[in-house]
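Narrative summary of target 7.
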Amino acid sequence: MIVGVSRETTPPSAGELFGGRLPLANRYVDLLASEGVARGLIGPREVPRLWDRHLLNCGVVVVRVPEGATVADVGSGAGLPGIVWAIARPDLDITLIEPLLRRTVFLEEAVEALGLSRVTVRRSRAEDVEATFDVVTARAVAPLEKLGGWCLPLVKPGGLFLAFKGRTAQEEVASSTAALHKMGATDIVVSSYGDLQVPATVVEVTR
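Modeled conformation, tokenized:
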């Protein structure tokens, strides 16, 4: 584990994204690099690239989230993107949905340590959540059609589902468009965010 990696590798663009809350983002990186690795939520090889591959990759997308929105992060894991968004945008009410106990324990501890008063951790499967949200996001590694089945029922009418995807985003959209429309999707687009080494690719699904 590399403790303190955030202080050593914080890129200039992080200050632009997090502003006065950059110290909180640094503390979160420290948590990921220490407890996140120790508990198996983050692989040791990810530590040197936590900023570029994870925090910035998640954070640049939050511009797409309306002011004051309610947000659900499905399969939150170590809090990506939910905790990153909460740090960057204290105006958001965010629910981290995660079924695994060891992950929810980490999330609860991280939320408390970072003083994120508008973040709720919920140990649950997405299918068992009855609430709806303005924006639902997922960075989980699962096919788009499966993610849509989990996430679209949680999106309010007129709301947005933001699925983090990689280079296969267009192919996944092509193969799952019909199914997503049956689930209530009205518009589906692929967008890229951030001047990063690997830009964040997101499938934006409007319900």
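The two ends are 42 Å apart (CA to CA).
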